[in-house]
Amino acid sequence: MNSFRILTIADKKQMNSILLQAPWTEGYLSSEYVFENLFAWNFTESIEILWCGHRAILRSLLKGKRVYLPPVASTVNDFMLCMDKIHELDPSAVIVGLTEKMLPMVNQPHQFILYDDVLSEYIYLSKEMIELKGGKFHRKRNQLSQFMKKFQYALTDYQKTNRLQVLDFLDRYKDQGGTAEDRNAIMHTLDNMSHLDTFADLLWVGDVLIGLSIGVISIFNHGVHLFEKADIQYTGSYAALIHLVYAKRYASVPFVSRQEDLGLPELRKAKMSYYPVQKEKKYVCTLDPELRQFHELYMECFNDSKEYVDFFFLHQATREHAIGVKKDEQLVSGLHLISKSLFFNHQAWDTLFIVAAATKKAYRRQGFMKKVMATAFKQSYDQGYSFLSLFPVSQNYYAPYGFMTYTYTEPIGDEREKRICSLEQTVSQSILSSLYKQSVEPYEGYMIRSESWWLQFMNSLYQDQYEFSLIKDKEETIGYLAHKGSEIDELCLIKDVLPVVSGYDFSKYQIPSINQQQPGNMIRIIHLKNFLERFNPSSRFTVEIKIKFIDDMIAENNCVLKITAEHGMIKYEDSADYDFELTMTEFTD
């Protein structure tokens, strides 16, 4: 076979036979090599296999992007040959799901290895999950006890005759706010159970289906929990489902993987509540030589942890928005552009935010960053962005590029009314998003933070063990805190008070202010005419003026325009003469 084809049941026997011979699968606790897991998620027929004799390459789609899975091989040499083949097929390939035992076999040119916390799996002792002994499981025992006392329940094997009941249950689960993204994968698995080693159990209260669990005992002798859902209207339903299923299905194996948290804080909290014995770390191998140099530049120039930087390159940075300048084929200066949304002039503006702008120490003050900025400006202009924004270490460094400060902060101080408060941990991006929105709405301009933005922000800080806490004034929530112990990354308040919490001094923390004390974010107009077309002046403002615009970074902005503002709108046209000149910095100001 010389081409990829869809993975089918027919591949199972040969794949398992090969993998059982591989020395790196001894003690394997993950799920990428578990055929039932692959098959479950292949309902879209997006997982493909390429057989190369007695070894195979798997590829799939992850969030719409092509990725490769660990090679199916029985020897180190075969594993490395598969890696060579992947590189031949796709010189910028991304290989996901690698375990620590596999890393020594990954030896491709220009590769760099990133830790992938999002796909790392939670591993549990099955005995602990069944017995629920000790103080750490006190709450779970109580939930289980309440369920067993209150309800007449039964756990049964799934039968084909239960299919419609399962579909109805999944509809109810979605109506309660649960995800429906795995619905098709669940039904695909149930409909093919006769060809798989999976088992499925149903939890009933009377004749009402309130829980579903699907799993498998892998060929590596560990359990893999594939799917699990329960009706939360029945108190203790999850605790009961987990306890009953583990006692029934996993008593014969020492370990069970409950798989990854997918970067979902609420799912992470749920998995941590059962105290995993370890987290099976996963790694990503990227073969893109360009992206590798950007990673090296970041690590050399900033003090962020490798975990944080790896998360940034896996989930935020893109090759298209990584801009750099080379000397002697080596990247010496670069930056990244991150898509954001800015609220300004009573409307939302798509914008790009500059992060990780840096030049290697040996090449500083030689004009390399100016070239990088010029490229970033040109690319942003061509894509139609009106603005570029950034949060600088030094305002003076970026002012010559036409950036000006548009946000300021000041210390909270100790003159506000003091309130004795407490902290309550939260993993809810919707609550945090709501609090942030309340805090910034009084301002003329601010960055819009969607729930998806919050998800990325929470996960990026989680790499350095930061958590989020609500600031509670008795029962009232008055803000939130992103912190690691008493080290604060972000504080947000929706009331003009000074929270008093033991171990914290909030009076010195900087918060947004209209008083121009401490400069914050900077902004630059990139596409002058696009900006003018969208900007809405006050309806009370009427003017006709001719301006010669001067921009020493973006040639297209050098023009002479007659601008008319009336009835809350702006019109412009080219002009042969002008009343005065304005640099882009002056105009932005």
Please characterize this protein's 3D structure:
The chain is α+β, with helices and mostly antiparallel strands and 589 residues long. The chain folds into four domains: 5-120, Gcn5-related N-acetyltransferase (GNAT) (Aminopeptidase), CATH 3.40.630; 122-259, Gcn5-related N-acetyltransferase (GNAT) (Aminopeptidase, 3-Layer(aba) Sandwich), CATH 3.40.630; 410-519, Gcn5-related N-acetyltransferase (GNAT) (Aminopeptidase, 3-Layer(aba) Sandwich), CATH 3.40.630.30; 526-588, SCP2 sterol-binding domain (Nonspecific Lipid-transfer Protein, Chain A, 2-Layer Sandwich). It is built from 17 helices and 34 strands. The strands form eight sheets. A seven-stranded mixed sheet has the order 8-9-10-11-12-7-13, sandwiched between helices. Helix 5 (138-150) crosses helix 8 (237-249), helix 10 (289-301) runs antiparallel to helix 11 and helix 14 (429-440) crosses helix 15. The relative contact order is 0.09. The mean pLDDT is 94.
Short summary:
The chain has 589 residues and is α+β, with helices and mostly antiparallel strands.
Number of helical segments with 4 or more residues:
17
Give the full name of the CATH homologous superfamily of the largest domain.
Answer: Gcn5-related N-acetyltransferase (GNAT)
The helix/strand class is: alpha+beta
Q: Give the spatial strand order of the biggest sheet.
A: 8-9-10-11-12-7-13
Q: Provide the helix percentage.
A: 25-40%
How many domains make up the 3D coordinates? 4
Distance between the termini: 64 Å
Low-confidence stretches: none
CATH architecture of the largest domain: 3-Layer(aba) Sandwich
The major β-sheet equals:
7 strands, mixed
Shape: globular
CATH class of the largest domain: Alpha Beta
Whole-number mean pLDDT = 94
DSSP strand content:
25-35%
Give the strand tally.
Answer: 34
CATH topology of the largest domain: Aminopeptidase
The radius of gyration computed from the alpha-carbon positions, rounded to a whole number of angstroms, is: 28 Å
